[in-house]
Amino acid sequence: MKSRLGYQPGGSFFHRLHPLLKGAWLVFLTAATFLIHSPIVNLVLVLGLLLIFPAIGIHLGDLRGLKLLFGTAALIAVLQFLFWGEGSLILEVGKIGITDQGLLRGVYLGARFMVVVLISYLFVVTTSPNQLAYSLMRAGLPYRYGFAFVTALRMIPIFEEEALTVYRAQQVRGVTYRPRVWKDLWEKLSGFFLPMLVSAMSKVDALSISMEGRCFGKYSTRTYFKVRGEFQGDLWAGLVLVLSIVAVILVKIGEV
Q: Is 18 in contact with 231 (CB distance < 8 Å)?
């Protein structure tokens, strides 16, 4: 069974990069795929991203939703192949004609979709939510918001487990979530979410009492238990990022 998509600890180059620098790369590559209308560039990025995952110890088969990703990208490409009318006609099947521009556009859009999703996957599996929140707080984000972000992420697996417990308990009692009328479905969903709401409120109450006992929010700044050490790769990754941004800008200027 595939695990839920999330951070997977490791010691690779990408794991050790600064979280904000990885976020900058995520934004840049996403923007670059929309700015540079080249199927070849996007295919190279897709191939590079697919090779990175095994290199950092993550099997592609372990990633959730990968089949859906490839299927959606293929669907996007095929729709462009069949219905994009501009360009020279290459193949005609009945009333449907496939053009060279349609092929290029289909490859470009399909590859662009894969780049955006794969780079997001890479960011998620190599970036610790705690480190990301601490980096944002060190960069100026008020620590109250950072703490809320970390707490929300930590609560996700807890509520996921509790939801599964409630679901199984109701199944044992004969509850089914496939009723014939919508009214019954609403009633049964209400019975499912009510214990979840009670559990959430009790956890929030306990957390607020704990934070109040520790004088949370009394000071404008906070201390950190773990301090991230310097990593030489941050400098090189930042330098390559700056050069890449300049290159994209020059390419766009040349197109004008």
A: yes
Contact 30, 114 (CB under 8 A): no
CA angle, corner 156, sides to 66 and 115, nearest 5?
30
Cβ count near 180 (within 10 Å):
7
CA angle 55, 59, 63 (to 5 degrees): 125
Assess contact for 98 and 92: CB atoms under 8 A.
yes
Q: Does the pTM exceed 0.70?
A: yes
Q: Which sequence spans correspond to the domains of the chain?
A: 13-127+228-245, 141-213
Q: Which of 126, 104, 95, 123 is nearest to 38 (CA)?
A: 104
Number of H helices, E strands in the chain: 9, 2
Cα–Cα distance between 28 and 26 in angstroms, integer? Answer: 6
Quote the CA–CA distance of 167 and 229 in Å, as a whole number: 44
- The Cα–Cα gap between 17 and 41 comes to 24
Q: Which two tokens stand for residue 90?
A: 């290459």
pLDDT tens per residue, range 65-85: 888 889 999 999 888 888 777
**CA neighbor of 116 nearest in space, from 216, 190, 189, 28:** 28
Residue-wise pLDDT tens digits, 123-180:
988 988 888 888 888 888 887 888 888 788 777 778 888 888 888 887 787 777 665 6
Note whether 97 and 87 are within 8 A (CB).
no
Dihedral, CA atoms, 54, 56, 61, 62, nearest 10 degrees?
170
